[in-house]
């Protein structure tokens, strides 16, 4: 047989305020209530649970051991309800509850996470769902899956649409035969060694290269590690391998052509997106390069 609780979260909230403020009078002032209504709420609560929750030490109200144990259990529920009510008020004001962010995995991580940190600090009620993608343009993405997206720029995109221009450098380990051999390496020399390529791997997998000369990986980190271990050469994002290039453990391949490639990334807002403050603040921060990005240019 179902039973309903005899105590309420409001009563527990009043109890917590009495403890935090130290007295019934101070709690009444903090809650904008009469002292008698505060005393009544606590009395009803103690009657409902069948045990004393407070005791007086001088003029200060403190929890009994039982009161401390029970309030510790109920406090998260009070906080959750306050959060839900706050979210409801933000919804009523047109604020986003959830921001779906789709980001190419080449986008600079310091900028990405700095933007997320500042956004959730300023708008703690907004939830961000982050999904990384690999070399997708807007044409290959359904609008149902994002609110903001940083993707490979559509042909012809320019100006404010572009939020990052990622430079890829043909790179190999310092001990790789392509580095030690004649420079620039010929096309036939390149063809003799495996090349790593970052590619989205779908449910059906990928087709393996019949000559074994192409390694498919689905993360930037895996591509860099493959080159670091001398297994492959490949075009790697310059901003992620600067330390290795400076120290010489990785070397740029001095190709006659195609030594460097650029991948422009653009920021897109879903059509019909509500221009709520949290979403627009995140968009603004994603557009802003970090200081280390500017210094490295």
From TrEMBL:
The keyword Lyase does not apply. Keywords: DNA-binding, Transcription, Transcription regulation. The keyword DNA-binding applies. InterPro entries: LysR_HTH_N, LysR_subst-bd, WH-like_DNA-bd_sf, WH_DNA-bd_sf. Transmembrane segments: none annotated. Residues 8-64 form the HTH lysR-type domain. One of its GO terms (molecular function) is DNA-binding transcription factor activity. Belongs to the LysR transcriptional regulatory family. This is LysR family transcriptional regulator. The lineage of its organism: Bacteria, Pseudomonadati, Pseudomonadota, Alphaproteobacteria, Rhodobacterales.
């Amino acid at each position: 047989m179902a039973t309903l609780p005899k105590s309420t979260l409001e009563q527990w909230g009043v109890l917590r305020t009495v403890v935090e403020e130290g007295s019934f009078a101070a709690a009444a002032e903090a809650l904008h209530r009469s002292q008698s209504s505060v005393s009544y709420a606590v009395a009803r609560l103690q009657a409902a649970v069948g045990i004393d929750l407070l005791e007086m030490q001088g003029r200060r109200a403190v929890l009994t051991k039982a009161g401390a144990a029970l309030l510790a259990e109920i406090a998260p529920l009070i906080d959750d309800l306050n959060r839900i009510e706050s979210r409801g008020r933000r919804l009523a004001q047109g604020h986003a509850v959830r921001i779906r962010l789709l980001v190419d995995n080449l986008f600079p991580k310091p900028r990405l996470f700095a933007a997320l940190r500042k956004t959730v600090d300023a708008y703690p009620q907004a939830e961000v769902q982050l999904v990384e993608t690999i070399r997708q343009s807007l044409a290959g993405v359904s609008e149902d899956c994002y609110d903001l997206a940083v993707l490979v720029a559509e042909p012809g995109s320019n100006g404010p649409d572009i939020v990052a221009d990622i430079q890829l450098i043909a790179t190999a380990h310092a001990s790789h035969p392509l580095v030690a051999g004649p420079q620039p390496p010929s096309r036939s020399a390149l063809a003799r060694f495996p090349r790593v390529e970052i590619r989205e791997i779908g449910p059906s997998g990928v087709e393996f290269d019949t000559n074994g000369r192409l390694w498919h990986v689905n993360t930037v980190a895996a591509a860099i590690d493959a080159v670091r271990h001398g297994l492959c050469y490949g075009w790697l994002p310059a901003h992620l391998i600067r330390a290795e290039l400076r120290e010489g453990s990785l070397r740029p391949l001095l190709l006659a052509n195609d030594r460097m490639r650029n991948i422009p990334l653009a920021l897109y807002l879903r059509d019909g997106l509500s221009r709520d403050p949290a979403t627009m603040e995140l968009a603004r921060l994603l557009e802003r390069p970090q200081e280390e990005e500017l210094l490295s240019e």
